Amino acid sequence: MKNTGTLQVTVQGEREIVMTRVFDAPRRLVYDALTKPDLLKRWFGPRGFSLDVCEVDLRVGGGFRFVLRMPNGKTMGMRGVYRELEPPERSVHLESFDDFPGEPAVVTTVLTEDAGRTTLTAIVLSPSREVRDAVIAHGMEHGAAESYDKMAELLATLEAAAPAAGAEA
Amino acid sequence: MDKPGQLDATFAALADPTRRAILARLAAGEASVLELAKPFAMSQPAISRHLKVLEQAGLISRGRDAQRRPCRLRAAPLAQASGWLEGYRQFWEGSFERLDALLEEIQTQEKRKRTKRGDQR
């Protein structure tokens, strides 16, 4: 069992990002928090960000519209379409950013519950470099440091995420 | 960030466990093909093919010395990939910390409601 509160982010293959996080709450609550606007407004975005627009049409084929205001006053809009909804355990949605038109990313979210705690696993499949660049833009906002230490961490993360070395060349 | 496709090339090169192991080894200092091949149960040509992918992705450079051609890590593309992941992680880390607080608040409220109703679960 992973510790509550530790977010793991790894890359899988060339186009996927996998996020894992444990919450100390049953999954029906986590599912609500992920899908209900009144709840989303209270947590979506890092500290200092605000969710100015949050509209959700929670049904397959329906969509959502978010506009985040960043600490520097700039806004970032995103929208999506729900493809699969199986409350409270699974959803698949398309996601795209206003500033980066093109094919949306496909996000698969899985919630598993064990002894009142919920593990969230989100797999983000980016079809295009543009979508990933939008994510990079977030990174720039935070002024991500460039250092060998960070690089070593990255390698360790990738190593941990990789299947046993089936070396082929 | 300037070179289009750099991030894609980086992640493509990193998708292989042997190549990641090679990079991890090079983080400790330059090495020749022979030295790199040693810890892997792999032929020198096989290692050379991996090195070629890494070199084309700009993750390593090779020395001029014709005999040894030592491999060196090039930090910039990896740092870029690392920065990208770090930014993503920070965005969600911040969001999820706020979500923790919200979930705790909701559960406390639910408990209080149940207690009011005299439901002692």
How does this structure look, described?
The complex is a heterodimer of chains A (169) and B (121). Chain A has a single domain (8-159), classed as Alpha-D-Glucose-1,6-Bisphosphate, Chain A, domain 4 (2-Layer Sandwich). Chain A is globular and about 40 Å long. Chain A has helices at residues 27-35, 37-40, 129-141, 148-161, and strands at residues 8-12, 16-23, 50-56, 63-69, 75-86, 90-97, 100-114, 117-125. An 8-stranded antiparallel β-sheet of chain A has the order 1-2-8-7-6-5-4-3. Chain A is of the alpha+beta class. In chain A, a hairpin with a 2-residue loop joins strand 7 (100-114) and strand 8 (117-125). Chain A is built from 4 helices and 8 strands. Chain B has helices at 6-14, 17-26, 33-37, 44-56, 75-116; strands at 60-62, 71-73. The model of chain B has no long low-confidence stretch (mean pLDDT 82). Chain B has a two-stranded antiparallel ribbon with strand order 1-2. Chain B is mostly helical. Chain B has a domain at 6-76: Winged helix-like DNA-binding domain superfamily/Winged helix DNA-binding domain (Arc Repressor Mutant, subunit A, Orthogonal Bundle), CATH 1.10.10. In chain B, a hairpin with an 8-residue loop joins strand 1 and strand 2 (71-73). In chain B, helix 1 (6-14) crosses helix 5 (75-116). Chains A and B meet through strand 2, helix 1, helix 3 and helix 4 of A and helix 1, helix 2, helix 4 and helix 5 of B.
Q: Output the CATH class name of chain A.
A: Alpha Beta
Nearest-angstrom radius of gyration of chain A?
A: 17 Å
Please give the CATH class of one domain in chain B.
Answer: Mainly Alpha
The CATH topology of one domain in chain B comes to Arc Repressor Mutant, subunit A
- Secondary-structure element series of chain B: HHHHEEH
The spatial strand order of the largest sheet of chain A comes to 1-2-8-7-6-5-4-3
Query: Which second-level CATH architecture of one domain in chain B applies?
Result: Orthogonal Bundle
Mass-distribution shape of chain A: globular
Biggest chain-to-chain interface with counts: A-B, 56 and 54 residues
Q: What is the distance, rounded to the nearest whole angstrom, between the alpha carbons of the first and last residues of chain B?
A: 55 Å
Major β-sheet annotation of chain A: 8 strands, antiparallel
Largest sheet of chain B: 2 strands, antiparallel
CATH level 3 topology of chain A: Alpha-D-Glucose-1,6-Bisphosphate, Chain A, domain 4
**Structural class of the helix and strand makeup of chain A?**
alpha+beta
Order of strands in the sheet with the most strands of chain B?
Answer: 1-2
* Percentage of residues assigned to helices of chain A: 10-25%
Note the run of SSEs of chain A as H and E. Answer: EEHHEEEEEEHH
| Whole-angstrom Rg of chain B | 24 Å
CATH superfamily of chain A: START domain
Q: Beta-strand level of the residues of chain B, as a percent range?
A: under 5%
**Number of continuous helical runs of chain A:** 4
